[in-house]
Amino acid sequence: MDSRFFTEHSSTKFNEDLEAIRTTTLEMGGLVAHQLAQALKAFSSGDSGLATEVIANESKVDSFELEIDHRCLEIIARRAPAAGDLRMVIVCMKMASDLERVGDEITKIANMAIKLLESGNLKMGMHEVKFIGQQVTNMLATALDGFARIDASSYGDICEREQEVDASYGSGVRSLVTYMMEDPRSISDAMNMMWTLRSLERIGDHVENLAEQIVYLVEGKDVRTEG
Amino acid sequence: MKLVDNVTEHTIPKDTVGTPFSDNAEISVRNVDVFYGEKQAIHNVSLDIGKNEVIAMIGPSGCGKSTFLRVLNRMNDTIDICRVTGEIIHDGENIYAPKTDVVPLRARVGMVFQKPNPFPKSIYDNVAYGPKLHGIASRRTDLDEIVETSLTKAGLWNEVKDRLHTPGTGLSGGQQQRLCIARTIAVNPEVILMDEPCSALDPIATAKIEELIAELSTNYTIAIVTHSMQQAARVSNRTAYFHLGHLVEVNPTEQVFTNPDHALTEAYITGRFG
Amino acid sequence: MTNTNLTQRQIIEAGLKKRYRKERAFKAAGVISIIFGLSWLVLLFGDIIGKGMPAFKSTMIQLSVNLDADDLGIDPEDATTFNKGNYDRVIRNAIRSEFAEVKSRGDRRSLGRIVSSNAGYDLRDLIKENPTLINTQASVWVKADSVVDDYFKNYYSPQKPGHILTDKQLIWVNDLIDRDKVTFQFNKGFFTSSDSRDPESAGVAGALKGSVLALIVCLVLAFPIAIAAAVYLEEFAPKNRLTDIIEVNINNLAAVPSIIFGLLGLAIFLNLFGMPRSAPLLGGMVLALMTLPTIIISARAAIKAVPPSIREAAYGLGASKMQVVLHHVIPLAMPGMLTGAIIGIAQALGETAPLLMIGMVAFIVDIPQGITDPATVLPVQIYLWSDSPERGFVANTSAAIMVLLGVLITMNLSAVLLRKRLEKRW
Fold this sequence. Notes:
By secondary structure, chain B is of the alpha/beta class. Chain B has helices at 65-71, 102-108, 123-134, 140-153, 157-160, 173-185, 203-216, 229-235, 253-258, 263-269, and strands at residues 17-18, 25-36, 39-50, 54-58, 82-90, 93-94, 109-112, 191-195, 221-225, 238-243, 246-252. Chain B has a single domain, classed as P-loop containing nucleotide triphosphate hydrolases (Rossmann fold, 3-Layer(aba) Sandwich). In chain B, strand 5 and strand 6 form a beta hairpin. In chain B, helix 3 (123-134) crosses helix 4, helix 3 packs parallel to helix 6 (173-185) and helix 4 crosses helix 6. Chain C has three domains: 8-53; 57-192, no CATH class; 205-422, MetI-like fold.
């Protein structure tokens, strides 16, 4: 769908304000995507320094959310936005909230990565982590790309991937349970791996929310009940 | 910044988009054109105004919304060069039929104007004028009752009951406008037309009028023209968007203000022109 | 900025002085104009008041008259005979008895002339009012002749040339003064009597009443017709060529010289309809014709000034056109209409020319009792007096002008008050 276009608002300042929350949300999305990549890289490369860095950067994500909330509130209070403008403001706020939760999950993943790297036992469930990690990374990138282009066409794709993520998460959990039953000594590591998977699955959920917000932004339709 | 999905151009649609028709219509407007001399002010408007609904008409200046409102009780008759074609059905009769008399029509479709315009008479006489005119009440006690109920409905009784015989023009702007509303409902109309009733009022007075509109909507059908989109959003059930004499879109107010169907509506609502 | 040496602020400040100077000059021009106008007004009023004030006073001489019925030649029982009495002889005898030493025929005649030639009529009126005085010796105050009056008003003095009191008359008058038999008092007669050949007896009552009657006729005719015309033209008439022509003609009529209306009255009312000449009815009709356009124009302006919002409100409640006009437009336009009417009437009050054409310029001694009696009006009276040679009429002319101005001021004041009273805010 290539029908989006920019027209000047009769108030330039209003225009700038709306542009600002959109770009800030995109920046936040970019930061979160980067954090996710770093956290996953910590697993694959075995570099716990990356995980530490991710944890340190969490506060940046939080401050992005605060900034977006603040700006959106100001627009609502001052401008009483309507129609597309209103949806943009609401969607930015909700996306910031979802992205912040994604950031929280990434921090959890980074913490698990540090613990698992310490124990050195990274074999269990690693396949699922890689697969789901790949999927959610793609999903997040697709969602942010859709938001940047004001394009809701990738929503179906994201939903499909999310279901794959769920399936993969289920099989990962089953295999980890098997490990735990076979070797009770591995329970601690398996649990950490399970938390990692759990976080990745939650990220998938949040990214699906983002995709739903984008549909609402573009089409004005609420697709949440359908999903 | 502007989002448009299914409509890609700023073109006036051939037919009104959204839901202009209703199963429970108080007034049915069909294919109405209005001309001022050679100039066409309204182009082929069809719209139902539902019973007990508040319908807001919005649009940029000169879009024909006020003209359309005035057509509904033939206030445009006072302008010599104004000509109306099409049908406006109220209570099964075309109000523009040759046999329709405007005097009873205006008693049934009342009007409140932009500027509060009480008569330079007492508050009591202002409200009693309509009933006296139409012979609804001739006895003093009946009139007293009508005056009291009308002022009560208009939320003005408590403020003026001790000075009913002081001039209506001595009230504040907001009170004057409520007096005008009381004067209109004193003849017990079915429809009240309001032409930018708050444009001369301060925000507090405006809020009172808006509250009053909400109360009145339980008994009356209200069509309100407003240049304040926020007011339309606050008071109406449905919103009609006029553009250059065309009725572009009619939809439930909530939809119009979150996700209008037409790009022109969106552009106007979000303040891109007008 | 083009001039780099001066800042913008300096440029503005440099220009300020010039601006203020111009402003002061502008104000001064206005003040000078007003002072110029006012000084002429003061001069005019000063002249009129200075000349007119003496007319409000008159010189009275006290005489002891013997009101013997036989001498008077009247029957005390029959009031109808009072008019035929020889009052002049009684007066003459009374003045002669004051100066018993005057014997010669010429001196006696000269002595008789210090009393007004109308004194006999005043005495007759006194007896009519008070018949019990008959057959008594009564002390009455009678008017002095205008030459004596003029002497007291210092128009003439022995030093000034042209005085027409003879030396002997002067001695007698001074003798009367010494005996306290002369007073100088308010001239009530000026307001109660009508025109006369003698300035000391002439009054404005006839002309004033004539004016009032003519104006009442004028108002009764012109006001309703003008209002009806104005309401029709403003509210009902279609806007087309015909109404445009009517409008132009009404405006033209307002500027037509008033004498034309007099000629019209002469040709139509007098010659065609044969209405009574010199009557206030006729005068009022001619004045009505003349004031109609003025009232129509101001009434239309007043109707135009009724805010459209009031009309809309009434139409919105379902009032018919006539109801809107009767309930709202006319009551709201009424103050303006009345002001217009009063201005028109005031204009009519001062009008002379058309009335000359219809014979209201006659010398009429009786106060008119109705609108068909011959009468004159104030401005015509002023015109007539200003033409009279007697010195006393100069004062009378100015005094009549003062009365006319007084009536005008009263009317204009009432216009303002009426407007204040009726005016409603919207």
